[in-house]
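Morning, I've got a small favour to ask if you have a moment. I'm working through a protein record and want to make sense of it properly. The fold is given in discrete form, as structure tokens running alongside the sequence. Can you walk me through what the tokens say about the fold? Thanks so much in advance, here it is:
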Amino acid sequence: MIFTKFKKLVKIHAWDLTAFTDWTEINKSLKEEMSIPCFTGYIIYRDKHQTIITSDYDIDKDGSITVGNRTIIPTKVIKKIEVLYDGTK
């Protein structure tokens, strides 16, 4: 679904891969965890495969929308979505 009304600013917590290039004991490596970075922006598209957010947008005089600073997140790795600001209320 494509979203064209930028009313909700969200923070998305998503599991991410974590890679280490150093040498370590195997028992220590078994205790390491995935990172859970946060992404903030407006959801512009979401389906069962991907969620796309943008942090910047512009609505031109003719009503067309341009967006910048986009992030594509696999929907299956999203842990939580927090609404930071809800302009619909």
User: Anything to note?
Assistant: The first helix runs from residue 26 to 29. The chain has one helix and five strands. Helices lie at 26-29.
